[in-house]
Structure formats: structure tokens, C-alpha cells
């Protein structure tokens, strides 16, 4: 099982196109969207190529491969444009190994405010726009960063999970961070 993670698209069509190109090249089976999909939000500038309807149309063509959660900038109006559900605050992804990934945006649950997790579980979130891939106590923390508004001098990035290895990758194909969850 290979999983691709993206967060904080914020309605940017060029960022979505780059992300979907990387997703197609990755060979991943599943595209996990960690919220803030269509709306830029009041604290962010309007992103380059801001076009929520076109972003929705592109993503809808991948609807059967997407698992999505709601971000703090996502709304019921956004959901009306999407043909895959994205209004859940969290979702679980069970890996073939039996490990669990807790998927959330990061504004309700995050590395500092975790739900009840088992030893070896991974909390996967966006929201901060800062990539993380590390073991913290008995769990793992993973944040793929942002494809539209990266912060802290990081490049725009996405995440990959393959063979128990979580990686944060920039659009040049460079691995920025990684951790093994096996």
C-alpha cells in the first residue's frame, strides 16, 4: 500500500496541478487530503491561481481514490463542489501491518493535542504548513507541510508512505524529512 498526503491546498489551481502530477508519478493508491482544500481563509493571502471551482473539478476526477478530512477553512459550501466527502474532522486509515493512522487537519487534534492513540499509531495532520516526520513518545507525528503556503523556509511539499517509511518530499523530488513507523 502506497499513500500520498497533501494539505493546505487553499484553492490554488497551479499547486493542485503540481500535486496531482506528483501523485500520478508516485504510484500511490490513495490520495489523503488533510483539509483546507478550496478556501484560502481570512489569514492567508489569495494564492497564485486561486480557482476553487477548477480545483474541485480536478480533484473530483480522483474522487474514488481520495480520503479527505475537513480543515478550519473548509465549509459546507465547499462540500457542495466536491464529489467526495470532506466534512469529517478526522478519519482512520488502517495499514496492512495493523498500524493505524489518525488523519486530521490539525486545528482540533495535533501533535500537542492528541486523541486516544495506541502505541505505534501515527497522527497525520496539516494546518501548521510546517512539515514534521518523527517519533514522539509512543506515537509518530507526520505533517506533509503545505503545497500552497509553506512556512519556516520549507519548500512546498507533500507526503508519501511506502513500506513503513513516511517521507516529506518537495516538488523537485527531494526528501526533506522521513521516519520509519515499522
TrEMBL record:
Assigned EC number: 3.1.4.-
Keywords from the named record: Metal-binding
Entry's Gene Ontology molecular function annotations: hydrolase activity; metal ion binding
Domain Calcineurin-like phosphoesterase: 1-161
SUPFAM superfamilies the record matches: Metallo-dependent phosphatases
InterPro entries (alphabetical): Calcineurin-like_PHP_lpxH, Metallo-depent_PP-like, MPP_YfcE, Phosphodiesterase_MJ0936/Vps29
Cofactors named for this entry: a divalent metal cation
Pfam families with a match to the protein in the record: Metallophos_2
Tree of life domain: Bacteria
Family statement drawn from the similarity comment of this UniProt entry: Belongs to the metallophosphoesterase superfamily. YfcE family.
Entry-linked PANTHER family: VACUOLAR SORTING PROTEIN VPS29
Protein name, entry field: Phosphoesterase
Organism per entry: Vibrio sinensis
